[in-house]
Amino acid sequence: MSLTATLLTASSGLNAAQASLRAISDNIANVNTPGYVRKAVNQSSLVVDGAGMGVKIDGVQRITDQYLQMASLTASSDASRWSAVSQYLDNAQSLFGDPSKDGFFFNRLDKIFACFATAADDPSSTLLRSQALSNVEDFLTEADRINSQIVALGDTVETQITANVDRVNNLLSEISKLNSDITRATLVGADASGSANIQSQMLDELASLVNVRISPRTSGGVDVRSAEGVLLAGDAPAKLTFNATDSTPGYISAQLPGSPSSTPINISSGELKGLLELRDIELPKIYDQLGEFVSKAVDQLNAANNDAAAYPPPTTMAGRDTGLDLPTAVTGFSGTSTLAIVSPTGVLQRKIDIDFTAGTMSVDGGPAAAFTPANFLTNLNTALGATGSATFTNGALTLNAAGGNGLAIDEGTSQKTGRGFSHFFGLNDLVKASGQTNYATGLTAASPHGFTPGDQINLQLSYTDGRPISSVAVTVPAAANMSDLLASLNSPATGVGLYGSFGLDANGVLSFTSSAALDAKVSVITDNTQRGAGGPSISQLFGLGVQERSTRAGRFSVSSIFSSDPTKMAMGKVDTSVAVGQVAVRPGDGQGALDLSAAGERSTLFQPAGSLGQVTMTVSRYAAEFGGAIGRGAAAAETRKASAEAVAAEANNRRQSVEGVNLDEELVNLTTYQQAFSASARMIQAAGDLYDVLLNMV
User: Fold this and answer.
1) How many other β-carbons are positioned within 10 Å of the β-carbon of residue 173?
2) Cβ-based neighbour number of residue 210 at 10 Å
3) Which pTM was predicted?
4) What pLDDT, on a 0 to 100 scale, did the predictor assign at position 231?
């Protein structure tokens, strides 16, 4: 080997050792720097004409493991998802109060029943009546507060989603810019590890917000794709958008550079996934179940109150807006009910027995006169005669007593959708509602739908993760029956028939069933339909859509008749076995109050809501199930959060063991390359000495 070759070999070794020492120095200096990935200098033998001529530097390499990096990013996404879900479900659970304290929401119902039980012992006490009403008002006010705050939580979640999408867009933009910096540095053989480390930290933050797929680029940097492969960051960033309305599920779409349209993408993990689940699934489940619970608790109180009688009896009973016309409302009743006209002192003046099964009315035990749903009101007015009148306006039945007399009703065995005659029409409701709250309409396929032909309801079909499938505009048909309306809703061409179907159950509850292949869900975009003049829309009457369901628990208030004058409360019962001229309603009778106190122990049918399907149980039992479901949901989210965080911690530890700086290892490398540097320097010194000898010889 010539002296020149020796000098070149030694010089290359010196440069390689020097570059490695710089890399090791950087590693040691950044041993505690978050996000720093250790680096090493890649070297290879330099061969000329088959002979070794030293070493060449191929570049500076970050010591990473792609598998461990992806495992860490995936685990981070899961941990962030469940952390968000756990946080907000815990907040929602706290709204109901501490189960061990008197202020716990579900304990308030027990207080109502206890107060009515006490009032039954002294039904004439205005104080006891006022206390019972106060407890009912507290229960309803608290339900409204909880419902409003759960809806407000949803608004907070939506704001956070928007902020997270903005942050994701910023990260995608910065990652794309860093790709350019890393590529330029790689092409000229410069050290790009600084930019790569910054990019790696951004990828970690991005993965905590939304699950992504990372793949290295041959020219340096990374490509970032969505779960289904949509390119989000590379040479240029895509722009993500949060798409949602108040009545439809939210989803994320990506607009690629240069593309005029956006593509919905699948979000399966990350904080965004948790927030989307909260907005569209978890929080709606809670307020929907709260609405079902409160409405059935109110329903049972009203059932007892409608079967009770006041002393002195009221001269007017004004029913609720059923959303139906009277013939449709009367159709489907069975059993018997008795309407009594009594004097201010409770003496029976007239008794009208209504047999819905037979379709007859009789006055004071006289001969039965037949009626039909179409002439029910006329026949009822005929039966009342000079003692009273009945009217039906805007979906509500109103009874009036004449001559200073009052009204009392015995529900008997009458029932439709599980409610008695007075209860169905809300003639003597203790609690009033400002809209539709019981979606058991009693309608059948043969019932007239009553909606104005030509009106439209716009529906959106979505996947379970909120991504839209299709939107349909359903027009109310000119054909009159519910079967015709169902046919329009389920039309494969203009309805939901390609994705599922609507159907009525035995109680007239309208619900959507998705086809098994899609598992789609339906939401209401707009609804300008109307049942009759000024009547409810399809979504209002049947409780379709989140906007209808989200306010149900806050629509109740104690009837102003009773809140303004507790002495008008129905605390007794009408005795329909007495003859005309005898006392039928007595002061001091507490049978009605006793029934109110037992309202929580009567079984009723609850429609599917929240975490519970359709069940028949008492209100008190449902309260326990509901309270337990909220606690279980929050606990399950916390458990998943803890598990995901444990997995993330282990994945990060293993990744850190590869990427992190080990001082002992670096000190060994430092010694090795110091010696290599000294050896190369010694070779140069020896070659210099030989040159001096040769020059002196000349």
Assistant:
1) 15
2) 29
3) 0.88
4) 94
